[in-house]
Structure formats: structure tokens, C-alpha cells
Amino acid sequence: MNLYTKFVVDYARLVNDARAFPLGGFPPAPRPKIPPDAPRALFFAPHPDDETIVGAMALRLLREARMNLINIAVTQGSKRERQAERLAELKNACNYIGYGLQTTGPNGLEKVTAPTRQDEPQLWAGMVKVIADILAKHRPRVILFPHERDWNETHIGVHYLVMDALKQMPASLECFLIETEFWGAMDDPNLMVEVSAEDLADLITATTFHVDEVKRNPYHLLLPAWMMDNVRRGAELVGGQGGAAPDFTFAALYRLREWAQNRVANVLTGGKFLSKTQNAGELFP
User: Fold this and answer.
1) CB-based contact 112:75 (threshold 8 Å)
2) Which of 13, 42, 178, 281 reaches 20 to 30 Å from 131, CA-CA?
């Protein structure tokens, strides 16, 4: 057999075999001791499960930088009959991975979209205040949220919701912005973060606690392939055209900037590769 045929057949077999693996129910993963006064990182998740799907950097901030990582559940999904169940699944996922959790209301926010921002300013203003209050409460060092072209209407809505809330903050609030991608790839990521096999396994395991979602679409099993493709894309999108690819197997792509004096500022000259041997806290002096 052609060696590449065997490679592809074995890969497909592994993914198919993993469909029979258990969903949820695992004991919590090991976690570091976080000091009470640790800087805070807020992950503004459009839906329950985003905190683990695109959470590679969040997990490294928790485990390496010893930041107090809090998942902000902006919505609890669009299906009202599933919102309570999705919150329960989210609590289990966060308990496994070690994130804190804060909701934005009994059922989360709804209609978090760019059209709502344009057509229903009063409703939008109320949601912006919810996010602004969370920012004022936690005074985060880092925030993670989707980029403005992440295709899904709620992902895009959360981007503008966070940006509008930041504009209401006093000038004294300074923090780093890490924009994430999932549904829509960024044209201009400037940070490629290597993901260790151990961290990726924990992110996949945490995602399985969203039981009904992964039963509907077992996307958790495709996270390794996606993160491998990120290495291909990031080698040149982050490193520059024609650049050599780093010796990463898995990676996630982000856009790192800073919020200071009520505006966005660049903090990197060119792109940066963050290997698994480096401490993620080095990015935030």
C-alpha cells in the first residue's frame, strides 16, 4: 500500500473510532493554583462551547500565566427551550477545564447581532451596559472575543458589543485584546499560538460536555485537523509570505492588540509565533 494511502486511511479510522468515545462525565483536569489577586482574563463567548473550541490561548493564560480566566457567557444559544440545558452543559465544561463562569442574565443576552445594533439602538444600548458593567467589575488585563468578520451573526455581534462597551470605559482602563476566529478566518492574524497535545486533548474533552451539540455535529473530533491547518495558514499569514513554517503540530491563530486611552493600538511589529515552551504571560508585560 502507498504510504500516503495508509496515512489517510489510518487518520479516517481514528476519527471514526473516536465517535464511540464517551461524552462528558470526566473528572476535572489538573489546574494551577490561582492567587486571589491574579490578573483577570475575560473570555466573551458568543455561545456555550466557544470557550473550548477557540480557547487554546485562554487555557494557556490560565495554566502558564496564572491568570484568573473567567468565561463570560454572552448568550446561551438561540433556542430558548435549550438555554437552561446549555447553561448546565457550560457549567460542566468550565468545571472540567478550570475556567470561572459569569452569565449575562438568567437566559443570557439575545439578538446579539449587527442588525440589532443598527436597527434597535435602545435594546443594543442595554446589552452594551451589561458588558460595560462586567468590564468595570473585573478590570481585566486581557479580553478574548471574536473578530469582526467571524461569519456567524452572533460572533460578529459579540465583537461589536465588546468594542462598544470598551468605548464607555474610563480612559484608565488598559487591557490587551485577543480576537479569535472560528467560522470566518482572519485575513490579518498576527499571533500563532502553539497548542500542546495535552492542552488540545483537554479542550476536546471539555467540549464533549456540550453533549447535545456534539451529538448533532461531532465537531470536537475535527479540532486536531483544524489546528493542524492553522499551522499551514499561520506560517505565512503570521510569519510572512515565503517564510519557513515553525515546528508546530497544532496551533491557533489570533489578532493581538491593546486597548489604551480609549482606542485600539498595535503591540506587535509584524507577526509572532508563541511556542509551547514559552510562557504565554510573556506577551503581556
Assistant:
1) yes
2) 281
Of the candidates 256, 238, 260, the residue with the CA atom closest to the CA atom of residue 178: 256
Amino acid at 257: R
Give yes or no for a contact between 56 and 86, defined as CB atoms under 8 angstroms apart: no
Distance CA 143, CA 129 (A): 17
Query: DSSP secondary-structure letter at 241?
Result: T
Distance of alpha carbon 194 from alpha carbon 59, whole angstroms:
12
If one counts every other C-beta atom within 10 angstroms of the C-beta of residue 68, the result is 20
Query: Which of these, 257, 249, 266, 125, lies nearest to 198 by C-alpha position?
Result: 249
- The cell 480609549 sits on which residue? 262
Q: All 3 cell numbers of residue 100?
A: 470561572
**CB 59 within 8 Å of CB 89:** no
Evaluated on CA atoms 220, 222, 227, 233, the torsion sign reads negative
Q: What is the mean pLDDT of residues 68-77?
A: 97
Asked if 210 and 49 touch (Cβ cutoff 8 Å), the reply is yes
Using one digit for the tens of pLDDT, what is the confidence trace for 26-54?
999 999 999 999 999 999 999 999 999 99
Q: What is the pLDDT of residues 210-265, one digit of tens each?
A: 999 999 999 999 999 999 999 999 999 999 999 888 999 999 999 999 999 999 99
Residues in the chain: 285
The arithmetic mean of pLDDT across residues 59-71, rounded, is 98
From CA 240, how far away is CA 53, in angstroms rounded?
Answer: 26
Strand ranges inside 100-249, DSSP E: 100-103, 142-146, 175-180, 191-194
Q: Tell me 253's DSSP state.
A: E
CB 184 within 8 A of CB 148: no
